[in-house]
C-alpha cells in the first residue's frame, strides 16, 4: 500500500502559515506564576508548560503571531532565536491553532451558528475573568463597587429598548423583523427589576432615576446601537454573547448572592437581578441567532466576517464596561451614584 502524500499546494500553504504565523483567536488564563497556563480556543483547552524559556517570553512571541510578522522579525523583536519561534509556529499549526483562510464564498448556516456559540463561550468566560468579579469575591474591592455594578447594569438593561428598536428600524432583511419585535416585547421593561435591587440596597429611588451612567456604560450602549444600525446579523449574533445562558445560571446566581454578602448588602438585593437572568434563560434569548439563521439559510462569507468582528468589538466593550465600574466606584471621592454636570456646576 502506498503511503498518502501531501499535495504541493498544501505544503506551500503550511509553509506560508508558519513563515508569517497568525493565531486563531484565543485567550490565556492562569491562577499563579507557578500554575500551568491554559490557552483557550473556543471550547478547547490547551495546557502550556514551561520546558524552556519563560512565560513572559512566550507571551511576547505570541504578541507578534498576527500574520504581519515573519519568523525572522518575530525572533528579532522578541529577542529569541528563529528556531524556537519556528518550532512554536509548527506546533501550533499541527494542533490546528493557526489561522487558515479558505476561498469560501458561503458559510453553511449551521457551521456559522456553532462557531459563534463556541466563540461566545470562550469570550463569555474571558469577560468573567475580569478583576471586577475576582475583587468582589475576595472582598478586595469596596462595597460601593458592588452597588456600582448593579447601578451600571440598571443603566445597561434600561437601554435594551433603545438598541433593539434601532435594530428593528434598520433591519436589513424584513424576514428578521418578527424575531426582533418579539425580542423587544420580552425585554422592554426589565430595568424595573434592577431598580428593585438598588432599592433593597438602600439607594433612594430619586437618586437612581437621576443617576448618570459612567462612560464605559455609555460606550457599551452606543456600540450596541451602532452595530444594530449597521448590520442586523451582527446585532443578533451579539445576543449570543450577552444573553443569559442556562449552563451558567446557577453558578452566576450564587456568585451574585455571595458578592452581595461580602460587600455588606443583604443577599435579597441580588434576587431581582437573578430573576431577570432566569426570565432571559426561559425566554431562550441566547438562541436568537439560531432562529435568524433558520430564516436566512447559509451566510455569505463577507457577512460572517463582519459579524465576527462586530461581536469581538462588543466583547471588548464589556471589558471597558467593567473597567469603568471598578475605576469610578473604587474612588472614595466620586459621587455615588454619578450625577449629571450642569451649567451651574462650572
Fold and architecture overview:
Helix 7 (143-158) runs antiparallel to helix 17, helix 10 (191-200) runs antiparallel to helix 15 and helix 12 packs antiparallel against helix 17. This protein has 346 residues and is mainly α. The model is unreliable at 1-6 (pLDDT under 50). Strand 1 (27-29) and strand 2 (37-41) form a beta hairpin. It has helices at 8-19, 55-63, 71-78, 82-94, 109-128, 131-138, 143-158, 160-169, 177-187, 191-200, 205-209, 215-230, 232-242, 246-263, 271-283, 288-296, 301-330; strands spanning 27-29, 37-41, 44-48, 106-107, 299-300. The strands form 2 sheets. Strands 1-2-3 form a 3-stranded antiparallel β-sheet, with helices on one face. A two-stranded antiparallel ribbon has the order 4-5. It is globular and about 65 Å long. The N and C termini lie far apart (86 Å).
Number of helices: 17
The helix-strand sequence is HEEEHHHEHHHHHHHHHHHHEH
> Which assembly state applies to the chains in this document?
single chain
The first-to-last residue Cα distance is 86 Å
Helix content bin = 55-70%
Poorly predicted regions: 1-6
Amino acid at each position: 500500500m502506498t503511503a498518502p502524500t501531501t499535495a504541493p499546494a498544501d505544503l506551500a500553504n503550511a509553509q506560508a502559515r508558519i513563515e508569517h504565523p497568525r493565531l486563531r483567536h484565543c485567550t490565556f488564563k492562569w491562577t499563579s506564576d507557578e500554575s500551568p497556563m491554559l490557552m483557550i480556543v473556543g471550547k478547547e483547552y490547551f495546557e502550556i508548560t514551561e520546558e524552556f524559556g519563560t512565560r513572559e517570553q512566550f507571551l511576547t512571541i505570541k504578541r507578534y503571531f498576527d500574520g504581519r510578522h515573519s519568523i525572522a522579525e518575530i525572533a528579532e523583536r522578541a529577542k529569541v532565536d528563529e528556531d524556537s519561534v519556528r518550532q512554536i509556529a509548527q506546533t501550533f499549526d499541527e494542533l490546528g491553532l493557526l489561522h487558515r483562510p479558505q476561498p469560501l464564498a458561503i458559510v453553511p448556516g449551521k457551521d456559522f451558528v456553532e462557531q459563534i456559540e463556541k466563540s461566545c463561550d470562550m469570550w463569555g468566560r474571558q469577560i468573567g475573568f475580569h478583576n471586577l468579579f475576582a475583587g468582589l469575591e475576595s472582598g478586595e474591592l469596596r462595597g460601593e463597587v458592588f452597588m456600582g455594578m448593579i447601578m451600571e447594569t440598571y443603566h445597561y438593561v434600561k437601554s435594551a429598548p433603545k438598541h433593539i428598536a434601532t435594530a428593528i428600524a434598520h433591519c436589513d432583511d424584513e424576514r428578521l423583523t418578527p424575531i426582533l419585535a418579539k425580542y423587544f416585547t420580552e425585554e422592554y421593561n426589565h430595568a424595573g427589576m434592577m431598580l428593585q435591587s438598588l432599592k433593597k440596597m438602600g439607594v433612594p429611588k430619586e437618586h437612581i432615576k437621576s443617576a448618570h451612567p459612567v462612560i464605559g456604560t455609555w460606550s457599551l450602549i452606543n456600540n450596541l446601537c451602532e452595530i444594530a444600525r449597521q448590520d442586523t446579523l451582527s446585532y443578533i449574533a451579539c445576543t449570543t454573547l450577552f444573553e443569559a445562558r442556562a449552563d451558567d445560571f446557577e453558578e452566576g446566581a450564587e456568585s451574585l448572592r455571595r458578592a452581595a454578602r461580602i460587600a455588606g448588602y443583604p443577599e435579597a438585593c441580588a434576587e431581582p437581578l437573578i430573576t431577570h437572568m432566569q426570565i432571559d434563560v426561559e425566554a431562550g434569548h441566547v438562541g436568537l441567532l439560531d432562529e435568524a439563521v433558520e430564516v436566512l439559510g447559509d451566510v455569505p462569507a463577507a457577512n460572517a466576517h463582519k459579524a465576527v468582528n462586530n461581536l469581538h468589538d462588543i466583547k471588548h466593550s464589556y471589558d471597558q464596561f467593567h473597567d469603568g465600574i471598578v475605576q469610578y466606584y473604587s474612588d472614595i471621592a466620586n459621587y455615588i451614584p454619578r450625577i449629571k454636570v450642569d451649567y451651574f456646576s462650572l
